Amino acid sequence: MAVAAVLAAAVTMRAQVPGVADAFESDIPRGLPTPWTFAPGRSGARAFTFTVFGDRTGNLQAHTLEKVVDTLNRRASSSPSAFVITVGDLIEGYSDNIPTLLRMWEEFDAGIGRLSQPFFRAPGNHDIGNRTMQEVYRARFSRDYYYFVFNDVLFLVLNTEDPAPELPEAMRTAMNQRAEQAVAGAQLPADPLVPCDRNAVETPIPARAVFSIPNISEAQAAYFEHVIDAHENVKWTFVFMHKPAWREPVAERFKRIEQRLQSRPYTVMAGHTHWYTRERFNERDYYTVGPSASLPRCTGNRDVDNQLVTVRVEGRSPTITREWVD
User: Which candidate, 117, 67, 65, places its Cα nearest to that of 91?
Assistant: First the structure.
C-alpha cells in the first residue's frame, strides 16, 4: 500500500474530535486529530494540578506503562490532576517501516487510553526521529509542536527533532532491527548498570552523541514567537520539550524563544536524560525530569528511578513535587 494511503487510513482510525471546554484554548481546528486524548474541562477553581510523565523508551520496560496508568488513575480519586503531559519518548520508534510504527503507536495509545485524565503528547527522538516517523506522527496527531492555554496558563510544547539529525547507515539498520524486536515482544538489550556516580565514565557510549542533538526549525521558532506575543497577559508559561535544548549542543533557535519569554514568569521542562535535575537560568527554573516507565540507566540514585512529577499552579509560583513508581 502506498505511504499516503497508509497514513490516510491511520488518520481515519485515530481522529478524535474533543470538546473544547471554556477553560481550554488551542489553535488546532476541530475535526483534526489532536496531540491530546481529550480536552481538560473547567474545574471552577483557578488553581489546578497537572502531572508530568517522563520518558518511557530509550530503555523500554515491558508492562510498566500499565502500572503507571493504574497509579495515575488511583491518584485521581484523591488528588485530582487536570491533565497529564509528557516530555516525549513514548514508543521505541526508529523504524522506516510504517506498519511497525503503527503497531507501536496502537500499543501505546491503547495503554494510555485507560487514563482517566487528558494526556498531552510531546514528541521525543524515539517518536519522531526520522522522516517516516514524522509522517506517521503528524497523521495521527496533526501537530508535532503546538500550544494550549488552560486556566490562564500558557503551555508551549516544542519539537526538538525539527529536523531530526541524520543517523549513520549502520546505526539506522541496527535501530530498524531493534524496532522489529520491540514489536515482536523481545527484551531489548540495555547498557550494563553501574553506580550512578561512575555512570559518565563507565557506561559505554558508542556514537550516541548524534541522538542528543536538538533542532528547532525557523518555522517553529517563528510560530512560538507569535504565540508568546499573542498571550502576553497569562499568569504563567510552561515550556515542554524532549531534549534539553538549553544544554550543549544548544539549539540556537531556542534562544529566540527564551528571549521572547524574558518579560514573564516561566518554567521549562524536558526529558531525554532519564535523570531528574533542576537548574537556574535567567532566574527561571529549568528541569529535566526522570523516566516514568523505563529501565534504569544506573543504580544508587533515586533521580534516575521511575517517577511522576506533580505541578501545582497556585499563588505566586508553581510548586513541583515528585513521587516514585515502584
Answer: 65
Residue 323 CB contacts under 8 Å (≥ 6 apart), including other chains: 307, 308, 310
B/e letters for 26-37, b = 16+ CB within 10 Å, e = fewer, are bebeeeebbbbb
Overall domain count for the chain: 1
State pTM to two decimals: 0.93
Q: What is the dihedral of CA 125, 128, 131, 133, to 10 degrees?
A: 130
Q: How far apart are the first and last CA of the chain?
A: 43
| Mean pLDDT (10-residue bins), the chain, 326 residues | 42 38 84 96 85 94 92 90 97 97 97 97 98 98 98 97 94 94 85 87 69 96 98 97 96 97 98 97 96 92 97 95 93
Q: Which of 75, 73, 41 is nearest to 150 (CA)?
A: 41
Compute the distance between CA of residue 264 and CA of residue 234 in angstroms, rounded to an integer.
9
Residue 206, domain CATH = 3.60.21.10
Query: What DSSP element (H or E) covers 53?
Result: strand 48-53
